[in-house]
Amino acid sequence: xxxxxxxxxxxxxxxIGYALxxxxxxxxxxxxxxxxxxxxxxxxxxxxxxxxxxxxLVDAAFPLLKGVVATTDAVExxxxxxxxxxxxxxxxxxxxxxxxxxxxxxxxxxxxxxALEQHAxxxxxxxxxxxxxxxxxxxLKEFAPSIPAKNITCLTRLDHNRALGQISEKxxxxxxxxxxxxxxxNHSSSQYPxxxxxxxxxxxxxxxxxxLVKDDAWLNGEFIxxxxxxxxxxxxxxxxxxxxxxxxxxxxxxxxWVLGTPEGTWVSMGVYSDGSYNVPAGPSHTHVxxxxxxxxxxxxxxxxxxxx
Length: 308
Ligand code: NAX
Known about the structure:
Blueprint: E1 5-10, H1 15-26, E2 36-41, H2 47-60, E3 65-71, H3 74-78, E4 83-86, H4 98-119, E5 125-128, H5 133-143, E6 152-154, H6 157-171, E7 178-179, E8 182-184, E9 192-194, E10 199-202, E11 205-208, H7 209-213, H8 216-220, H9 222-228, H10 230-238, H11 244-259, E12 267-272, E13 299-304
């Protein structure tokens, strides 16, 4: 039998956490033959709710779940973890300026970076979900210099999956037959969902999305804005932000990172740019006019090839 993998979820008492931890415990993230031990971190005001989530995990009697650590102590939460999914953070509230949210998140991500750097398992893989995801990932990278930059990523897979979903709806094909969209830019409304290399598996073989859609106006207009603004549309409809789709995409991100993508398929992840794809290496200074300690836009997404 395989040794259990320790998976940390921060902000585990929140709505994404509530959708995510049962997926991990069922094997959606790491495979149905991979036992897991869940580490859940939240802040003291959420401690009771966090304990309630732990009670439900026990009640669900997941065969793969070999243990649960539920804590408000970052060091205890980070100790020995192989995978860290950072969902906790300070949300932007009405009337708050972006820089106020930034300074709160800088202190949160600085402390959690140190806890991970000192106590996580070697080669721990980190996925930042909490917004601003790209910037929080950069902060974590800056304050955990001994963790290789390539092990620190942020979630843009939800945008990638949203783009696949829109193409599948437009063409009335199965979403599993659509592949190789790319999300460039930040996880924000400035992102660019790119269909120029995307294909659909048809009875007559793989066809480019552009050839099948035959509607460049839609592809260059409504498709892009729908993907860019999907988060806002979900909030409008649900009165809550995306949770099940974010949790599912976080599982997809880690699964493909650890287990690889199918031959000929790539996916989008936010990574620290090494200069690939003609994207400038290192932090981008596009938004330095916003007063924060660190440049924004710093972790640039790229498609991940199977071999990486
Ligand atoms: P919730 O407010 O439901 O949950 C957040 C949880 O984090 C709460 O339980 C809170 O107590 C906890 N928390 C706050 N500070 C913490 C700290 N210092 N350490 C540990 N836990 C802490 O938000 P939810 O809807 O679950 O969203 C979580 C984050 O995901 C938000 O920042 C949100 O903006 C972001 N999202 C990112 C997406 C992406 O694609 N990158 C999409 C979905 C989502 O909007």
